[in-house]
Write a structure and sequence with these properties.
Layout: H1 10-21, H2 27-34, H3 38-50, E1 66-70, E2 74-81, E3 93-100, H4 102-112, E4 116-123, H5 127-138, E5 146-148, E6 156-161, E7 167-173, H6 182-187, H7 189-193, E8 197-201, H8 206-216, E9 222-226, E10 245-249, H9 250-256, H10 268-277, E11 282-286, E12 292-296, E13 299-303, H11 316-329, H12 334-349, H13 361-371
Parallel strand pairs: 1-4, 1-8, 2-6, 4-5, 8-9, 9-10, 10-11
Antiparallel strand pairs: 2-3, 6-7, 11-12, 12-13
Helix pairs in contact: 2-3, 4-11, 9-10, 11-12, 12-13
Bound molecules: adenosine-5'-triphosphate and magnesium ion.
Magnesium ion (MG) binds next to loops.
Amino acid sequence: MLLIMPKLSKTEQTILELISNDPLISQAKIAAKLNLARSTIAVQITQLINKNLLIGRGYILPKSQKVTCIGGMAFNRKYSLNSAPIFGTSNPAINIKSHGGVIRNIAENMARMDVDVCLLSIIGDDESGKELRTQMHNLGVDTSQIAISNNKPTAEYIAVFDNNNELVMGIASMDILDQITPNLIEESWPNIKSSDWVVLDCNLPQETIKKILDLKQKSNFKVAIDTVSVSKAMRLPKDLSSVDILFTNKDEAASILALDHILKKSDLNTIANQLRNRGTKGVVLTDGSNGHIVNIGNEVFTSPALSSKVCNVSGAGDALVAGFISQLLTGASIREASDIGAALSALTVESQMDVRQDLNSKILYEYLSKNLK
Ligand SMILES: Nc1ncnc2c1ncn2[C@@H]1O[C@H](COP(=O)(O)OP(=O)(O)OP(=O)(O)O)[C@@H](O)[C@H]1O
Ligand SMILES: [Mg+2]
C-alpha cells in the first residue's frame, strides 16, 4: 500500500511512482531508469520506509543476491557476401552487428531474468564500446566496473560468410581483454567481494584468473567459470580447488585435462570425474545436442537437451550457465538449477540471436513446464 505524503524529492516521487505502477520492479531496473546506482536506490527506498512513505514491505523485493560477472565483452560484425568471395579486392556484403563476449552474454541473460548483476570488463574509448556499455546499463546491469582502455579499441569478432552461408573467415581482435589485469581486480575488489557469486570466463588473462581464485580463499562468495574455448580453457590453473562449479564442454574439458585422442572418447562421467580430481567442487559438462551432465558435491546426474527446433547453437552454453546460476541464487536445488539451465539453452538455440531478446523469467518457466518430461 502506498501512502503519498507532500514534499517528496523528485527522485523519491519517481521511485514511488515506479513501484506503484509495478510493485515487483527490481531495484536494478529502477536504477537503470533513473540513471542512478542500485545502491543509491536501495538507500532511497530505505529512507522512504523509514519516513513511512512506503508501507508494506511486500512492495520491495528482499535483498537480492548479487552476481559479479568478470570477463570479455565484444562487438560482433557478421558480413554476408553477395557472391562468391574474390580475394585481393573489395566484395559487396550485407552487415549485421550484434553484442557478444561469453561473460557479457551470461550477464545479459541474467539481467533479462532480473538478477542483480555487475559486469566487470573493458571497452575501448570508441562508439562500439559505448554501445555495448549502454545496452547493458539499460538492462539494469551495474556497468560501473567496466574499464575504458586508453590505447586499445573495443574487442571485435568479425565473421565473413560467402553467398552459401559458409564461413570464409573469422577474425578475433581481442587484445584489449589482456588489460583486465590483476591490478584491475584489486581496484574493483570492494565491489567483487560483496558478491554472492562471481562468474568468470577464460577470456581473462591467466594471471587474472589466478588472482581472483587466490583472493576468493579469503571471501564468502562462490565462483563459477566458463572455459570459453579449447585454447582459452588452458588458462585455468592446475589446482581447481577454489572453483565451485566449472562449466565446460567436452572439447574444452579434454583441453584442460590434456587428454589424448583415445581418452577424448571417454564418456562424460569419466571426464567429469577427472575434472573433480583436479579439485573443483562441481562440474557441469555440456555436449551440444546430447545435453549435459552434472557432477556437483555428491550429486551426479545426466540431463538431456530439451530443444528439437534448433536455429542457432551459438550462445547455448552461455545461456546454460546464466540459467543455472540464476536459479541457485533463489535457493533452488542443483536439479532445479540444471533444469532451468537446460530450458534457457533450449530457448536460446531456438532463437536467431546468441542471447534471446524476448527472454524473461515468465517465458522461461512456461517453457520448462511445457517441455520437461
Ligand atoms: N544442437 C542442439 N540441440 C539441442 N540442444 C542443444 C544443441 N546445442 C546445444 N544445446 C543445448 O545447449 C547446452 C550447451 O551446449 P554446448 O555444449 O554446445 O555448449 P558450448 O559448446 O559451450 O556452446 P557456446 O560456447 O557456443 O555457447 C547443451 O547442453 C544443450 O542443452
Ligand atoms: Mg561455451
